[in-house]
UniProtKB/TrEMBL annotation:
Residues 21-153 form the Creatinase N-terminal domain. Gene3D superfamilies: Creatinase/methionine aminopeptidase superfamily (3.90.230.10), Creatinase/prolidase N-terminal domain (3.40.350.10). One of its GO terms (molecular function) is metalloaminopeptidase activity. This is Aminopeptidase P family protein. Residues 326-536 form the Peptidase M24 domain. One of its GO terms (cellular component) is cytoplasm.
Amino acid sequence: MFEARFQSFDETADPSQGAPRLAALRAALKTQGLDGFLLPRADEHQNEYLPPSAERLAWLTGFTGSFGFVVVLAEEAAVFVDGRYTVQARAQIDPAVFATVNVIDKSPSEWLKAHAREGERIGYDPRLHTVEGFERFAKAAEAAGAELVALDENPIDALWTDRPAPPLAPVVLHDDALAGESAASKLARVQAELAKAKADALLITDAHCLAWTFNIRGGDVAHTPLPLGFAIVPAEGRSFVFMDGRKLSNVVRNALSETAEIAEPGALTAALATLGEAEVTVRLDPAAAAISFARALEESGATIQLGPDPIAKLKARKNEAEIAGARAAHLRDGAALCRFLCWLDAEAPKGALDEIGAAEALETFRRETGKLKDVSFPSISAAGPNAALPHYRVTTATNRKLTPGLFLIDSGAQYEDGTTDVTRTVLVGEATPEMRDRFTRVLRGHIAISTAVFPKGVSGAQIDGFARRPLWEAGADFDHGTGHGVGSYLSVHEGPQRISKLGTVALEPGMILSNEPGYYREGAFGIRTETLVLVERRAIPGAEREMYGFETLTLAPIDRRAIEVGMLTADERAWLDRYHARVLAEIGPLADADTRVWLEAACAPL
């Protein structure tokens, strides 16, 4: 009945390959006079989702999470993950050959400093390390008396005999009506930012910034419509785009040519040399640009100005067309999600439904809108203890039936007018008192973010604790950020805005973020409630400062059956009732008869 076209449930991790592949890597390093190797999960663009040809870390270790780092030494090797992936890493990695380390406990650079020996030569691929990230390793190696050696070729590429070819997905134009601004206008704004910064040019290495600036999209990586390539934007004059010409139709090439010269990626090296010959100042984002680019510019004679890519913040502030698109996408997506939740309520109690079946059904309902371009990430369809893994990915090997308790479904969609991301935790059968307590505390934290009002200049770090307080009061917490930025038919995880302890960028009107506190009891259950929110101006009588708040974009009921109503304040109950009334009013007219009946019950006042 249902099928998934945009996600696979095959198990790709094979821990048994870790030992022979690590041995082969060490042998290859030895032939080059090297004692170790540094391997981030990264490509030349620092993408979250990588083309298959760049999944070197997964090939070596078996670990398939979206964040990881490997340090290989002659006698030791360690894989570093964050709190989202500690359990997954233990399941996918052979502990006999790789230690698994949580970066909260020790960072890769700290581990290198403690484990590297004096005189050791440790290789790295300069295309995969950012300027900022590499600096930490350089200091660690120096402290240990070791030497870091830049390699012209990644040694894994020679060992990976069946490595996929680099992607060549067609580039498509993103309509100006959806973008809300022409590429020429965006370039003018970027050039104005360069003038303010007293920079002569900007090197764009982030494919998201490339796509946004030139109003193009592609399919070179899974789930994010990215065309991989690079660009140079001068403070004055025409820009340069470096992209494989096989991806460009005549229509796309002609459109790009209106604002930029087009060249093959291999021409970028010569272009950087030209910048050096002109003795220009080039803006480079140290958190996004590879150290290889910085060195090429330095060697050419250019002056490097390290600082955030100005495009990132321009992209983060959505214009009116993008905001209208986000609202339309969420209305469409909400109708599909409510249809799914209605179906789930009917099917789950029968006992035959499993995690894969639920993920397939939700993707099918979204596809039936006729507008779905892709899922925005593989659905986290998690029952029972699997839901305690914040970034769990269901496979045929891990697939569980939906048994009585809590079922978590975190999913999203890519539409041309917007990107969605939503999590609902649904009660199947009865909940334990602990489940109800934790579900309600997560909800209270979610409401605290949704209702937050804050002055201009406040960052996500300053409100992150709002979402945690109800859990802190019970001696609990969660190990991920409360919210990440979201793009406009781009990445579901977009910076620089975020609500987390690390979110130091001020929140501004037009930014879209997630609001997703959670709770995870390892081996038992997991809870997360997530909606997307839009930063907007708030008029407060008598306010002495410019004030902001959030508009909730996501439209789907929060399961009332799992709430311990007595734990909510009157204001929290009122907020939830208002939200559910809005969901019913906006989604109800789009729903079929069965879903409408279900919605009326799911959205009834507490």
